[in-house]
Amino acid sequence: MLTKKLGALTVTAAIPVLIISFFLAQIDIQRYNIGAAIDILTKKPLPKEVPNPPSSKEFLVRLSPVVDKATFTEEDVTRTIKKAVKNVLTGYKNDEYFEFNSYLGPNFVSAYYVVQKYLQHKDTEFDPHTKLDEKVLYKLLSTTQYPDGSWANVVDGSVNFGDIDTTVYNYWALKVMGEPLDSPMMTNARRFILSKGGLRHTNCLSRYWQTFFGNIKWSENIYIPLFVFGDSILSRLLNFQGRVAQWVYPHVLPITYSTYFKVQKDMGSRFDLYELLPENAGKSWDDPLFAERPAKIEDISQKGEPEEAVVKILMRMFDIQQPMGSFGAYTVSTLFGIIAYDDFMHRFPESKYIPEIKERIKKGYEYIEMMYFDNEAEYMGNLCNGRSWETILSSIALVEAGYEGAEVVKAANYLAKKQRKNGGIPYGVDFEYASDFDDTAEAVILWSAFKGNKDLEKRVDHANQLLFEIQNKDGGFAAFDHEKQGFKPIEFVTAAFSDAAEIWDPSCADVTGHVLEGFGESGLNYTHPIVKRGIEYLINTQKPSGGWEGRWGNNYIYSFGAVIPALKKVGYDLNQPWIRKAVSWVLQHQNLDGGFGESPLSYKSEKWCGVGISTPSQTAWALLGLLEIKRADIMDVGDSVEKAIQFLINEMDREGKWEDKSVVGTGHRGFLMMVYLTYPYSWPLIAMSRYQRYFGEKEIDLKNAEVFDDLPTNILEKITATAESVKPSNP
Ligand SMILES: *[C@@H]1O[C@H](CO)[C@@H](O)[C@H](O)[C@H]1NC(C)=O
């Protein structure tokens, strides 16, 4: 009896043990440093203290004058719109699209500079013949350091300090260039880095770069086992690639290869950063640790082909590499890819894959060189290209302003050519593999202006079909994917990456707003079930303050500018307490110069929400919402609209163009901000044109603008007529 029971118990207990062992057996456990893994996963980051914004609003007035009362005339508005139209047109390229480029910081070029030395491809068949001029980079770095020794990837105009990661990249590049370590620039940078905890307290992507050079040990970094990208049952169940946000996989894949082989080279003392580890901070420069040492490159070559799991990773890298050479359209992932290819080439020189790898390395370099040095954002770290996005926003701005040139029509047709089989629009070049739903929604808005154009109407329907399908369960919409909002079984691993990148692609108010606005423009209203669920999502995610966090723009002001016009477009009654609450929130944050601004610190501390120096883009976003509220007359917004318009006029008069003096684009919330050169050209023009249409005393008259040749009276008729004559090709 008893033995029988025990037997049954053993069998019952054995099943889960067997299952667990089966799964564990698939993990290349012998390579896994469990101690280090636990250490990394439990590592508490140093508290990142966020300074308080100054209590007085005066500090936010930088360049534009204080506006007590708006004094502009109708003529000022018209003049400003004309000038803005002219400025947008400077971005028209190749007679088919608009492009102004974007960037995330010169520190990415610093990293590229150092990694090029690591790869040692100069004067070989892979020589990228780089356009990177050391002197230019040096000048850029030496003139952008903050007084505390730090660098920032992009400018937050409300503060005067940077961050540890950017500072490490730039310090490293300068050291490799030969900058004396005891120069004030290096001494201050070092002091800043050590005050933030030193090299190990940089984020995981920064640490990977250091690991290739031996400055951080592989055991101190996150280990990703090869099986994650294999085809075992466990790999398929976890389905890492299918769970995470679109941008994660192209980066993690080549890193997985490198972690497996612990890819590393001793490049000599000039590449060392031992002085940035706290334990070495007190040591004198005479210490043997800092002694000069030449590079010592080991022979890692093996006979034959690698094991199957490695070949699988290689095949996946081939798959993710896009036609223009990028790993998923990003430069950083491409550079990780080149390192992995380069290692493979040296490790398995007899492999049959070598000829193909060689070609792929060359293509990868071409892409990086093009992004970093072949555009308006040269040396600024243009990580990927957003040509569709820039084309759409520029065109919408021109349409709103009543511009009737053929550029808009050609741009709409360019976008038609870019529409994918699933109905989506990719963000920019080499992104054809991934539809961007924000772009798709904004394309719907643009194409909807071409009323009566059968082809574009079909494309709007097709795009909307896709957008219907990708609504998340919570009713919101995300940027690239349907329901990739988290997956518990892999979160214990992905958490370790979360200091460098967002891992998920969650629903957000800004994309949801744009999608709803597109639906509204194409004829749907708030009674449609999908629109209804979208509105419920917005109601459910409103913060107690009254705002919504911005995912792709900075920050609550961006969402405000997306949500209110969307609700208006779908015919929703704006006279609701929750909307009045959002409006009250934004009204509290108007600056003394009439503009609006919000520091990226708003992602780290509520104290900064809605607080920051005024920028034309953020002023435009606030205006886009306020204009609808004022027009519908649902609550008293005082003279906030006029003051904001005055700010835009003052800025244009002062500089001849709109320019954001503080970053307004968000790559990854809280740690990676992005400058979109196109934003201050397009968003304020949209806002100002709407102001003119809603409240102007007379219809805007652009007849005297030098940029226009012939002017029929009805913009839409003209556009539609021209569009009919320029049939876009099929997708
Ligand atoms: C909303 O759309 C539905 C379906 O097209 C239509 O029947 C209804 O009249 C619309 N409501 C409003 C207020 O426009």
Question: How would you characterize this protein structure?
Answer:
The protein has helices spanning 2-26, 34-42, 74-89, 107-119, 134-142, 164-177, 184-195, 204-212, 233-238, 240-243, 248-261, 308-320, 331-347, 354-373, 387-400, 406-418, 437-447, 454-469, 488-494, 509-521, 529-541, 556-569, 577-587, 616-632, 640-655, 679-695, 715-725, and strands spanning 92-93, 97-98, 102-103, 425-426, 435-436, 665-668, 672-676. The protein has 731 residues and is mainly α. Strand 4 and strand 5 form a beta hairpin. Helix 6 packs antiparallel against helix 7 and helix 24 runs antiparallel to helix 25 (640-655).
Features:
binds 2-acetamido-2-deoxy-beta-D-glucopyranose, 3-stranded antiparallel β-sheet, two-stranded antiparallel ribbon, Glycosyltransferase, mainly alpha, disordered C terminus, 731 residues, 7 strands, 3 domains, globular, 48% helix
Please bin the fraction of helical residues.
Answer: 40-55%
Instruction: Write down the Rg.
Output: 27 Å
Number of DSSP E strands:
7
Strand order of the largest sheet: 3-7-6
Residue share in β-strands: under 5%
Could you tell me the CATH topology label of the largest domain.
Answer: Glycosyltransferase
Secondary-structure content class: mainly alpha
Largest beta-sheet characterization: 3 strands, antiparallel
Unreliable stretches (pLDDT < 50, length at least 5) are 700-716, 725-731
Tally of individual helices: 27
How many structural domains does the protein architecture include? 3
Query: Could you say what the CATH architecture of the largest domain is?
Result: Alpha/alpha barrel
- What is the residue-averaged pLDDT? 90
The N- and C-terminal alpha carbons lie at a distance of 72 Å
Shape: globular
* Name of the CATH first level of the largest domain: Mainly Alpha
Write out the distinct hetero groups bound to the structure. Answer: 2-acetamido-2-deoxy-beta-D-glucopyranose
Domain Squalene cyclase C-terminal: 389-693
Domain Squalene cyclase N-terminal: 82-282
Keywords: Membrane, Repeat, Transferase, Transmembrane, Transmembrane helix
Transmembrane segments: 6-25
